[in-house]
TrEMBL record:
<dbReference type="InterPro" id="IPR003439">
    <property type="entry name" value="ABC_transporter-like_ATP-bd"/>
</dbReference>
<keyword id="KW-0813">Transport</keyword>
<feature type="domain" description="ABC transporter">
    <location>
        <begin position="4"/>
        <end position="234"/>
    </location>
</feature>
<keyword id="KW-0547">Nucleotide-binding</keyword>
<dbReference type="InterPro" id="IPR013611">
    <property type="entry name" value="Transp-assoc_OB_typ2"/>
</dbReference>
<dbReference type="InterPro" id="IPR008995">
    <property type="entry name" value="Mo/tungstate-bd_C_term_dom"/>
</dbReference>
<keyword id="KW-0067">ATP-binding</keyword>
<dbReference type="InterPro" id="IPR027417">
    <property type="entry name" value="P-loop_NTPase"/>
</dbReference>
<dbReference type="Pfam" id="PF00005">
    <property type="entry name" value="ABC_tran"/>
</dbReference>
<protein>
    <submittedName>
        <fullName>ABC transporter ATP-binding protein</fullName>
    </submittedName>
</protein>
<dbReference type="InterPro" id="IPR050093">
    <property type="entry name" value="ABC_SmlMolc_Importer"/>
</dbReference>
<dbReference type="Pfam" id="PF08402">
    <property type="entry name" value="TOBE_2"/>
</dbReference>
<dbReference type="InterPro" id="IPR017871">
    <property type="entry name" value="ABC_transporter-like_CS"/>
</dbReference>
<dbReference type="InterPro" id="IPR003593">
    <property type="entry name" value="AAA+_ATPase"/>
</dbReference>
<dbReference type="GO" id="GO:0005524">
    <property type="term" value="F:ATP binding"/>
</dbReference>
């Protein structure tokens, strides 16, 4: 199956630049998530890939073929829309085989394909039901089966989980990912849900204001953010404003040991980020900076516990996994928090302001 490549793709609506010039390669058989807040350009980018929007400039390549000007119905791409776009007057089976029937495939062949796909998405026996008789998760499976009916070279999904409740959404994320892995089909998913992207994707493209901020695996995106926007948007982070020095980052009167700040000229205004699970209150073995702290709030959130602290450099949240410590923490308690040097990320101050 040929690879998909975007070469300098951009889209403007009048004076509004919805997508800046973008270069991306989608590896064969990989699931890529386009992730970002509302209005960042991710859906516009997906619609250009699908052929539903014409790019202002740039090219879309499938293997060696330039498909930029190819109409959507001529691209062998399957697409699942946010609202599923199913036909309520047709049965489940009729929805799945609709595209096959209008393309002239023999009815017997179309029905056989429909039966196979319904079995694939675990809807065997639902053939004659109406769409209105299905749950949200079942409707999503019908939409997926319909999109797969044409044996697409690329599978596109636009916010496919947004209409589902939280529990069903998590279940469907796993099911869809397992199905994609089983089929080995190149897949692009648009989502604003970072947990969804981290659960499903081989690779995440983080977008903001029409630009690609970072591309990488879920682990790279989370543990090695390339700028303040990514650090702030993916997961949680404690942020502090300071000034770079040769030995670290100074915040007020405190000099933090931050190896990541070594690349900045002394005197440069910077922002420093630290993940809550990296900050440490007990058994701190990694080299770093220790600060006196007072507990201001304790929150138990299922599998984790958040300890909110007040320190001389500002508020800090420390997260512990359930069972990681039995030590009680009470509001007003005096303690010491350590910020490991290896867990600190330093960015230009302007990036933090923009994020």
């Amino acid at each position: 199956m040929p690879g998909l490549r975007l070469a300098g793709i951009a889209k403007s609506f009048g004076s509004v630049h919805a997508v800046e010039a973008t270069n991306l390669d989608f590896a064969e058989g990989e699931l890529t998530a386009l992730l970002g807040p509302s209005g960042c350009g991710k859906t516009t980018l997906l619609r250009m890939i699908a052929g539903l929007e014409a790019p202002t400039r740039g090219a879309i390549l499938l293997g060696e073929a330039d498909i930029t000007a190819q109409p959507a119905h001529e691209r062998k791409f399957g697409m699942v829309f946010q609202n599923f776009a199913l036909f309520p007057h047709l049965s489940v089976r009729e929805n799945v085989v609709y595209s096959l029937m209008i393309s002239g495939i023999a009815k017997s062949d179309a029905m056989a394909t429909g039966a196979r796909l319904l079995d694939l998405v675990q809807l065997k026996g639902f053939d004659d039901r109406r769409i209105g008789e299905l749950s949200g998760g079942q409707r999503q499976r019908v939409a997926i089966a319909r999109a797969l009916a044409q044996e697409p070279e690329v599978f596109l999904l636009d916010e496919p989980m947004s209409a589902l409740d939280a529990k069903l959404r998590e279940d469907m994320q796993v099911e869809l990912r397992m199905l994609q892995q089983r089929l080995g089909i190149t897949t692009v998913v648009v989502t604003h849900d970072q947990r969804e992207a981290m659960t499903m994707a081989d690779r995440i493209v983080v977008m903001s204001q029409g630009k690609v901020e970072q591309v990488g695996s879920p682990q790279q995106i989370y543990h090695q953010p390339e700028n303040a926007f990514v650090a702030d948007f993916i997961g949680r982070a404690n942020f502090f404003d300071g000034v770079a020095e040769a030995a670290g980052v100074r915040i007020g009167s405190v000099l933090l040991d931050a190896a990541a700040g070594a690349g900045f000229r002394p005197g440069t205004p910077v922002s420093l980020a630290c993940r809550p699970e990296v900050a440490c209150l007990i058994d701190c073995t990694s080299p770093g900076t220790s600060l006196p702290a007072k507990v201001t709030f304790v929150r138990d959130v299922g599998p984790a516990r958040d300890i909110h602290l007040e320190t001389e450099i500002g508020r800090i949240i420390v997260e512990y996994a359930r069972g990681e410590t039995d030590q009680p923490f009470a509001v007003g308690q005096e303690t010491t928090v350590t910020l490991p040097a290896s867990g600190l990320h330093v960015f230009p101050r302007a990036e933090r302001a923009a994020a």
